[in-house]
Design goal:
Protein name: CBS domain protein
InterPro entries: CBS_bac (IPR044729), CBS_dom (IPR000644), CBS_dom_sf (IPR046342), Diverse_CBS-Domain (IPR051257)
Low-confidence stretches: none
Mean pLDDT: 91
Shape: elongated
Largest sheet: 4 strands, mixed
Order of helices and strands: HEHEEHHEHEEH
Radius of gyration: 17 Å
Organism: Marinobacterium mangrovicola
Number of helices: 6
Helix content: 40-55%
Keywords: CBS domain
Strand content: 15-25%
Strand order of the largest sheet: 1-2-3-4
Length: 138
């Protein structure tokens, strides 16, 4: 049942989180390879310290590529204090939060450490799956 589903049921692992000291070009490569719209930035103890999205990168990529300036690091442009969720959060509660808040991707944090990520697309797919099952039951 959907009301019992938790974020842990839909989240996926982040195999290559970003670090604040990472060069912009390296971070962009990891974002592109991940297939996500952005990735969490973690500190030494895997605590989430920021989030870097494609949107955040684009403006800096334009100027950096034009001037061949490779000095920009993730910490310079990341969104600090991103919205995070817990693995035990309800999928319904998260869907309601996502309908009001802008982020499309949320780091999943447990005991102060990154344990995964969940996207708006995953939540929509789960809600739609549940809706389709309701139609079959009627």
């Amino acid at each position: 049942m959907l009301h019992q589903k938790q974020v842990r049921d839909l989240m996926f692992p982040v195999t290559h989180p970003l670090s604040g000291q990472m060069a912009l070009s390296e971070a962009v490569e990891l974002i592109l390879v991940s297939g996500q719209l952005g990735l969490p930035v973690v500190g030494d103890r895997k605590e989430v310290v920021g989030f870097l999205s494609e949107h955040d990168c684009l403006r800096y990529l334009v100027s950096s590529s034009y001037y061949c300036d490779a000095r920009i690091q993730v910490a310079d442009i990341m969104h600090q204090e991103p919205l995070c969720v817990s693995p035990s959060d309800s999928v319904i509660d998260l869907a309601q939060q996502m309908s009001k808040a802008r982020p499309k991707n949320y780091p999943v944090v447990e005991n102060g450490r990154l344990v995964g990520m969940i996207t708006r697309r995953q939540v929509m797919m789960e809600l739609n799956r549940t809706l389709r099952e309701c139609k079959v039951a009627i």
